[in-house]
Specification:
The chain starts with a helix and ends with a helix. The protein is mainly alpha-helical. Helix content is about 80%, strand content about 0%.
């Protein structure tokens, strides 16, 4: 669950968004799905570039308790992304809605999921609880920084 929860939430969001477009945008076809997929991939690539500062900084791994709580909060990110898809499909429609929705959902879901992790981190800090895994990982990081 720890390693797949956010990917699952994104899968639900992007799949439901494509289905909404198919119903609401009043235009569908293979080329529309290609626009959707390419725009989604571009958005994800841009986010990855920003998050890693041009691929020069590794992404830190969240403690398992933070990840678990963040995933438990994912109803909000999925709902937000799918609702956004409906808004674009309904009010923009046509061919334009396909790449626009793919791009926006691929930006909004990861950003919202990141905010859920930040909320989970605050809860963890407020409760000041660490699992053995987190304590061990923190000790290893401390030892590496101090040459130990």
């Amino acid at each position: 669950m720890r390693n797949n929860g956010q990917a699952y939430g994104f899968s639900v969001s992007i799949t439901a968004s494509a289905a909404i477009l198919n119903v609401e945008a009043r235009q569908s076809g293979a080329v529309h799905l290609i626009y959707f997929a390419v725009a989604a991939a571009v958005a994800f690539s841009l986010l990855e570039t920003v998050a890693t500062r041009g691929f020069s900084k590794p992404l830190e791994q969240e403690p398992s308790t933070v990840t678990a709580l963040g995933i438990a909060l994912s109803t909000a990110s999925v709902t937000g992304a799918v609702t956004l898809a409906w808004v674009v499909a309904h009010f923009v429609g046509g061919v334009t809605a396909w790449p626009l929705t793919g791009f926006l959902v691929s930006v909004v879901y990861p950003v919202a999921a990141g905010m859920e992790l930040a909320i989970a981190q605050r809860f963890r800090e407020a409760s000041d609880q660490s699992t053995k895994e987190e304590t061990s990982r923190e000790e290893e990081a401390h030892d590496r920084q101090n040459g130990g």
